[in-house]
Structure to design on (324 residues):
């Protein structure tokens, strides 16, 4: 299957960070014809400039997949791409202060519109090269941020499908408080950022609202919940694949609560990118017994309307520590 009029089909995992997007990315990447490429919203800085690890374990510039993609898209090796210049354009097109212009096209100046079109053309070439090198029909990008989805939606050569992954706001807020190492940076010991519960609750509201608000700009839009994904990944993956490919391209039958993961060439994302082999899928609900009551109440209060919209209970009984 290819997109309409030979377009590159991109399936974008959108939502708020710490929602299980890497798990969803890896599950989709195991489906025939789908290739998981990780988070590309910041690819120039993280991959081309900082040379962080690819999911295959090699550094980005040494990875054969990304070398082939770069040669096809830009006619040169990864180290020769004008990454600093492209990174500057990326900031001018999709930096946080550009969100209003991407969200509401009527706010765009002619100069901004031109820059956006030129940058989208670069992405066109890059995603088409990924499709060709991987010999796949659907590129799965787990960047999550809404504004990058909107940039991809502007690319003339891309047919953009969005799966909106939602997770309980209290679970994401709890996750943002935990200290986690970043294995993709090998030059020094680096930890993932930590956020206050107020900040993560506020961002959870904003990210989910923004992604949903422009759903008509996407070729298809599917909402799934992390909690449903880990309970029955087969049904949720089937739902997404049906939305992208139609009823004739359904996932194969499940074989229990685990999945056999192959090597992936994911440019960026969380440590789950590096998992290979038989992997058990289980719910991470540590927040239900370990999150301080005050933090739970703050996050519940700040996100109550959207929690209700996504069918989460506002009152959750504090689980005992033996609950997984
Ligand atoms: Zn690789």
């Amino acid at each position: 299957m290819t997109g309409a009029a030979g377009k590159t089909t991109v399936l974008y995992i959108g939502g708020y960070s710490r929602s299980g997007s890497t798990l969803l990315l890896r599950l989709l990447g195991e489906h025939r014809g789908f290739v998981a490429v990780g988070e590309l919203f910041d690819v120039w800085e993280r991959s081309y400039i900082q040379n962080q690890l690819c999911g295959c374990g090699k550094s980005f510039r040494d990875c054969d997949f990304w070398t082939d993609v770069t040669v096809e898209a830009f006619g040169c090796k990864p180290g020769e791409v004008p990454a600093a210049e492209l990174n500057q354009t990326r900031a001018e097109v999709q930096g946080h202060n550009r969100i209003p212009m991407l969200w509401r096209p009527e706010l765009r100046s002619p100069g901004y519109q031109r820059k956006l079109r030129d940058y989208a053309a670069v992405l066109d070439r890059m995603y088409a090269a990924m499709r060709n090198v991987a010999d796949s029909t659907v590129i799965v990008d787990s960047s999550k941020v809404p504004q990058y989805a909107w940039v991809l939606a502007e690319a003339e050569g891309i047919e953009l499908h969005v799966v909106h992954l939602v997770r309980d706001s209290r679970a994401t807020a709890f996750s943002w408080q935990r200290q986690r190492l970043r294995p993709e940076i090998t030059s020094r010991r680096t930890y993932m950022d930590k956020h206050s519960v107020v900040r993560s609750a506020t961002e959870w509201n904003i990210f989910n609202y923004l992604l949903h608000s422009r759903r008509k700009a996407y070729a298809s839009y599917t909402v799934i919940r992390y909690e449903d994904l880990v309970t029955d990944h087969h049904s949720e993956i089937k739902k997404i694949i049906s939305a992208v490919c139609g009823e004739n391209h359904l996932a194969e039958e499940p074989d229990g609560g685990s999945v056999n993961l192959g090597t992936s060439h994911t440019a960026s994302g969380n440590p789950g990118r590096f998992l290979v082999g038989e992997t058990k899928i289980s719910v991470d609900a540590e927040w239900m017994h370990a999150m301080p009551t005050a933090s739970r109440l703050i996050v519940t209060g700040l996100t109550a309307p959207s929690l209700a919209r996504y069918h989460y209970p506002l009152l959750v009984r504090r689980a005992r520590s033996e609950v997984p």
About this structure: Residues 54, 56, 58, 63, 65, 265 surround zinc ion (CB under 6 Å). The mean pLDDT is 90. The first strand starts at residue 8 and ends at 15. The first helix runs from residue 21 to 29.
